[in-house]
Design goal:
272 residues, globular, 0% strand
Length: 272
């Protein structure tokens, strides 16, 4: 129980300080720290990430920063494609999933360590991107390129959520940074809204299909994650962004190494 509390608090704090990464770290934390299998850990990780993201998204809604139409459109595509990811996860060996998951984790770590460029941090209506805000209305101009781009982001997020049990924030945030001219604040809370809804719907689909259920220690982990999120949001303004991103990168790299050892050389590490 104590490990579930500690790990949940840690995941919630990381999510609150970085705006993403809860799903990436939750599964290794559950597998390595509590002894859960990959299949059992997926719904717990999704529930923790979903509820934690909902807390951040609710604050964004209060401040009026969430892009409702864009979030709902990506959620729709994510919900439609997540069952395909679930089906694929049951067709391939666990070792393959571990390798795929680890490859994604390494990519996330590399992106998190890099310093953001001026193009990534600046907000400009003149940027040549498919998802652009109208400078007169402050809303998206829904062109065919806009529909296609957001649809692909939502579909890819749903596939990864169903197959790997991750919320998708590590994918949504950099994609919106690259292909839209939203402010960083708007990107984060819109991403959190998508993650919360997609993760929650995927958990429900898993439970109704009888693939997985959440054990009591899993619910303790979920609650602790939410508490960690609330605490981290209270202190996030005092932590330099680059420090939190690079600290997150180190944690992801460590989790990747441990997960690979657990999968391919379990005798080298002792887990309780």
């Amino acid at each position: 129980m104590s490990s579930s509390i500690f790990l949940g608090l840690l995941i919630g704090i990381v999510m609150g300080l970085t705006g993403a990464g809860g799903g990436i770290l939750s599964i290794p934390a559950l597998v390595l720290g509590t002894g859960m299998g990959m299949v059992a850990a997926k719904p717990v990780a999704l529930a923790a990430v979903g509820l934690g993201s909902a807390i951040g998204a609710a604050d964004g809604l209060r401040l009026g920063h969430v892009r409702y139409k864009a979030a709902l459109y990506m959620v729709l595509l994510g919900v439609l494609f997540s069952p395909i990811g679930q089906w694929a996860a049951h067709q391939v060996p666990a070792a393959f999933l571990a390798i795929l998951f680890s490859a994604i984790m390494l990519l996330v770590a590399w992106r998190s360590w890099k310093k953001p460029s001026r193009a990534q941090t600046a907000h400009s209506y003149e940027r040549d991107v498919p998802c652009k805000l109208n400078p007169d209305t402050g809303k998206f101009s829904w062109t065919p390129a806009h529909f296609t781009t957001l649809g692909l982001i939502g579909a890819a997020t749903g596939l990864m959520t169903g197959m790997l049990g991750v919320g998708g924030g590590f994918f949504i945030v950099p994609m919106l940074q690259r292909y839209s001219n939203l402010t960083q604040q708007s990107i984060v809370v819109t991403s959190l809204a998508v993650i919360a809804l997609v993760s929650g719907s995927t958990v429900l689909q898993m439970l109704l299909a009888g693939h997985s259920d959440i054990v009591p220690s899993g619910w303790i982990f979920v609650i602790a994650t939410c508490v960690g999120m609330v605490f981290s949001r209270m202190v996030a303004a005092r932590v330099p962004t680059l420090w939190s991103k690079r600290g997150f990168a180190v944690l992801v790299l460590l989790a990747t190494v441990l997960l690979l050892l657990k999968t391919f050389a379990p005798g080298l590490i002792a887990l309780s």
